[in-house]
Design a protein that fits this description.
By secondary structure, the protein is of the alpha+beta class. It has three domains: about 140 residues, 3-Layer(aba) Sandwich (Protein Transport Mog1p, Chain A); about 110 residues, no CATH class; about 70 residues, no CATH class. It is built from nine helices and 14 strands. It is extended, with a radius of gyration of 36 Å. It starts with a helix and ends in a 16-residue tail after the last helix. About 25% of the residues are buried.
């Protein structure tokens, strides 16, 4: 009997210990900083360095600090792991203002065209490194390790962050498809970004105001090459003021390069290089802007259609009117039947005549 009780006690204690261990493992696995959990990957041995910053003053001192501040950085965390083989793996996680900021930083640092994930929303793999975005997070992983391990760790981090609906910034759609190198496309959210990572215009950083979007790419057509820059302003008047101010072409281009500009809607296109006027006009002419209005009810759906020589819209109105009239007639008949039935019920139920429908003048009663 004592042996039986001892076995039961040991089983309970062992089950409790296993449950506690499972809870601790789960808590460690799903962390708020999105790094891999302890013993999640056997290749990751120990943590050499662990850093977390959220103070704007300290965030501004990071590499590319002014650019990150412009992109709306909120938090930075980094960890360095030792590996099985000689080497280490560095993971950096940036929480930026929105998904545009994350994509912008990815396009500036990536040496290739960002591709849709997984892992994450957009990914740019390279030799011994992997960059990707997930929502408003930008993640950079560097280390002398295998591509398989990088993708496994990246998938783990991206799953913790959560996958969103990936969509490229709309401004990138205005880059001409013909002659422009997709790998050279860079997306910027202000003057700090384009000054640090953009191609110079007229010998210096492009002069653009804050709170605007810009995109750049290298173009080569008919043995002529150069850089195209498209700036998107919040409103058309701001674009017109910028275009008319001469902020772009206030000094001549260096060497044999020529400068061409075009403004359409809130977009300002700038083309610099050894392009002929014909090629420049064709390239900048491909930048088009049109308003997109989505109606809740498409009033033009049946426009132009006829039946028996009568427009469908008029027939539809007539049919709807007849149906409404018929419905009102049916409702009136039903109301009359119900009133008559009610009066008949009163006469039969109470055993008296229902004279409530008559008016007595009482002329002869006095």
């Amino acid at each position: 009997m004592r042996s039986y009780k001892l076995i039961v006690i040991l089983a309970v204690l062992t089950g409790g210990a296993l449950a506690a261990t499972a809870v601790r493992a789960q808590v460690q696995l799903v962390t708020s900083d999105y790094f891999p959990g302890d013993q999640e990957f056997r290749e990751l041995k120990t943590i050499q360095q662990d850093k977390e910053l959220s103070d704007p003053a300290l965030l501004a001192k990071l590499t590319d600090g002014p650019v990150l501040i412009e992109l709306g950085i909120k938090r930075y965390a980094a960890r360095t792991y030792t590996l099985d083989d000689p080497g280490r793996l560095v993971i950096e996680i940036y929480r930026l203002g929105d998904s545009r900021g994350a994509y912008s930083y990815l396009s500036m640092l990536a040496g290739t065209t960002p591709q849709p994930g997984p892992p994450g929303d957009f990914i740019a793999p390279a030799s011994e490194s992997l960059l990707f975005t997930a929502g408003n997070y930008f993640v950079a992983m560097h280390g002398a390790t295998t591509d398989t391990l990088l993708r496994r760790v990246a998938t783990s981090i991206a799953n913790r962050i959560g996958r969103s609906e990936p969509s490229r910034p709309i401004l990138l759609n205005h880059i001409p498809a013909e002659g422009c190198d997709p790998a050279s496309i860079r997306y910027f959210l202000g003057p700090q970004s384009i000054a640090a990572f953009g191609a110079p215009i007229v010998g210096g950083p492009p002069a653009i105001p804050s709170d605007v979007e810009a995109v750049q790419a290298r173009c080569s057509m008919q043995e002529q090459s150069g850089t195209i820059t498209i700036i998107s302003f919040p409103t058309i008047p701001l674009a017109e003021d910028y275009f008319d101010s001469g902020a772009v072409y206030d000094k001549p281009s260096p060497g044999s390069a020529s400068l061409y500009t075009r403004q359409t809607g809130p977009l300002v296109g700038i083309l610099e290089g050894n392009f002929s006027p014909e090629v420049a006009d064709k390239t900048l002419g491909s930048i088009k802007f049109s308003y997109s209005v989505k109606w809740i009810y498409d009033r033009t759906k049946n426009r132009g259609q006829t039946l028996w020589g009568v427009p469908v819209r008029i027939l539809s109105t007539v049919v709807h009117s007849l149906m409404f009239t018929a419905l009102m007639c049916v409702a009136s008949v039903l109301a009359g039947v119900m009133i008559a039935a009610g009066r008949a019920y009163v006469r039969r139920r109470l055993g008296r005549e229902d004279d409530s429908g008559y008016i007595r003048l009482k002329i002869n009663e006095n």
